[in-house]
Amino acid sequence: MGIRAHILGAAAGGGLPQWNCGCANCNDARRGVIPAQTQSSVAVSGNGRDWAILNASPDIRDQIARCPDLHPSGLRDMPLRAVLVTNGDIDHVAGLLVLREQQPFDLFATSEIHQILGANPIFDALRPEIVTRRSIALEQPFALAPDLTATLFAVPGKVPLYLEGEDLKLDQEGEQTVGVCLQAGEDTAYYIPGCARMTEPLAERLSGADLVMFDGTLWRDDEMITTGLSQKTGKRMGHISISGPEGSIAAFAQIPVARKVFVHMNNSNPALRPGAPERREIEAAGWIVAEDGMSL
Q1: Which of 228, 206, 225 is nearest to 215 (CA)?
Q2: CA-CA distances (angstroms) from residue 238 to 9, 66, 156, 187, 196?
Q3: Which residue among 13, 212, 244, 276 sits deepest, i.e. has the most Cβ atoms within 10 Å of its Cβ?
Q4: Residue 260 gets which letter from DSSP?
């Protein structure tokens, strides 16, 4: 059949609206002027019957409720076969605690991310005799779900905020931040919700893909500062910006990809507003801005 994907959540951590934010985007999302978005998560399948979730956001309960393909087919029969987390960020792992209801599935992550989860006893609510934790080596294909193969690979990024120390590397490559290559039938897709910069090896890897879901956190690097929301730049947070000579639009200009979709968008991003100049620029460059409930 090939790859099917449902955008369960299109926003970065905090969602849109963020609970404590009164910026223009959040206020308009509360009023229904622009679409509200939940936190970053995608459901994927290689056959339309068996599904895996990429990143378990804190909003996962409501996201599953809004996605009929993920609904129970019997008393405790679920089409969900696996959950894969791409890093240890709170907005990507907190939803695991919602999935503790005695439901079997495989939990995939790199060994370093599993160490983070294992160090916090609250995640023991996912009982090992029910939820199988599987450590995945980089660059080694594995069966994520029936008829769906995945491969994890390192992308530039940083450790989660709660693990930051004095010696902070903002674009290190290893097991802490990974992208996912998905293959089913003749289809190849990539999911990269966090990436600090484009590298030549990454560009070569993505060349010719049928679909790339890519980090769209910020429109510009100083966005959080100019809007008065934070003193951190996008680079400080480990995210490439969309615009500018070093941004993702420019980086992908020479990379042939059939469909390009921005995911993991921060509540401050002006491109969240349909019809905004930034949205028009994104669409003119051949990109799609993800929204909750979008099917690909």
Answers
A1: 206
A2: 20, 30, 8, 29, 5
A3: 212
A4: E
Tell which residue, 240, 288, 295, 238, has the closest CA to residue 262. Answer: 288
Q: Distances from the Cα of 186 to the Cαs of 67, 74, 89, 147, 180, in angstroms?
A: 25, 32, 32, 12, 17
| pTM given for the model | 0.95
Give the tokens for residue 242. Answer: 């969309």
The answer to whether residue 163 scores a pLDDT higher than 90 is: no
Domains of the chain: which residue ranges? Answer: 4-289
Tokens matching residue 39: 């936190």
Query: Per mean pLDDT, which range of 85-89, 118-122, 225-229 is the poorest?
Result: 225-229
Note the Cα 31 to chain centre separation in Å. 26
Number of neighbouring beta carbons within 10 Å of residue 30: 14
Q: Tell me which amino acid residue 43 is.
A: A
- Tokens matching residue 219: 């429109």
CATH architecture for residues 4-289 = 4-Layer Sandwich (3.60)
